[in-house]
Structure formats: structure tokens, C-alpha cells
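Worked example

This section walks through a single chain of length 206. The input is the sequence exactly as stored; nothing has been trimmed or padded.
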Amino acid sequence: MEPPKRWSTTRDGANVRMTDTTFSMVSRRGILGAFAATALIAAPTYSNAFGLLKGAGDIRHIKMYSGRTGESINSIYWIEGEYIPEVLKEINHFMRDWRSDEAIKIDPRNMDILAAAHRLMDVSEPYMLLSGYRSPATNAMLRSHSRGVAKHSLHMKGQAADLRLESRSVGQMAKAATACASGGVGRYSRSNFVHMDCGPVRSWGG
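Given that input, the structure is written out below as C-alpha cells.
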């Protein structure tokens, strides 16, 4: 495994540029968090994984692509205790309802869950985003075709994402998300994706 990297953020007007800096600049706390995450991969359970969401590092990074739009995002969205507003706006657009091209504010807590789960799985592959925000009209349409779509889906609040990884199974993804103990986790093995949201802690599917 390559040594972890840190990204620095420089601002130029409305632009945010991300550049590599050395691993030595990561705080001791961040180093310990990174090594703890690596150790957890080899363990049968992800104990104390919630530390990855709070107090276990200086940066939070999201890496996704959309097979629907062909777009991708690979950005640091939180650094030194603060979310980066410009990047959150990019995430809002990236996770828009691709059917209607509508976008709303995506709950950053859900990004934290996605980022922490991705870190736990120790992968470089980006998530494939299948569904982010859904407009009420889109949700109603999908619900009319599938009993698995909730009437009051958190997708309509920008608090959920349906995701896939080629290098990890549905079970592995769900296990990492469940370890965060910060929201809902749905397994959809037949369709090969995992639902992650920042609602009440719960799980379903198989």
C-alpha cells in the first residue's frame, strides 16, 4: 500500500486547487487514525470505527464518479475542522437528480459517512454513484416501478446515496458503512449496490 498523502488547499478567487504535500505534515492524531483504519481492515470487525468520523484526521476526501452523467469528483471537502464551501457546492451539483437536472444542498454528514467507509475499506477506486438526490417526482416514478423505493426516501432530502465498488462486495461495503454507526445501511446484493444515509442508525437487506 502506498503511504497516505495529504492535500493542501489554495484559494484563487472562487477556485480551489488541491496539491500533494508530504505525509510528514499530517498530524500525529491523523497518522494514528490512518494506521488504525488499516489495522481494522484485517480484523473480523470494525471496532471503534466512529473515530474516523470525528477526531481521527485533518482531512476528509470524497472520490466518486457517475455512470449516468460521466462526471467525476475527487476532492478534499473538509480540512482542519472546516468544510470547504466551494467543494460542497460541487458535490451538490455532482449528486443532482440526473433525470430532472435538479440539485439541492447535500447533507455533509452523509459525505462524512461515505468518506469514512471508503477509508475503512482501504481502496483507491472511486465510488460509482448510482443515485444521490432524487426529486419528489423522480422518487414517485421509481416507487411506482419498485417496492424497494421508500415513499419518504432520504434521497429527497439530500441525505442518502446508492453506491457500488468493483473491488469490494456488497457485504464488505455494508460492513464498513455499518461500522461508522452513523446512519442507515441497506444491502442490495442482487443489484450490487449499498445504500448509505445519515438518518437513524438501522440496516436492512441482504
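What to look for: Confidence is low (pLDDT under 50) at residues 1-48.
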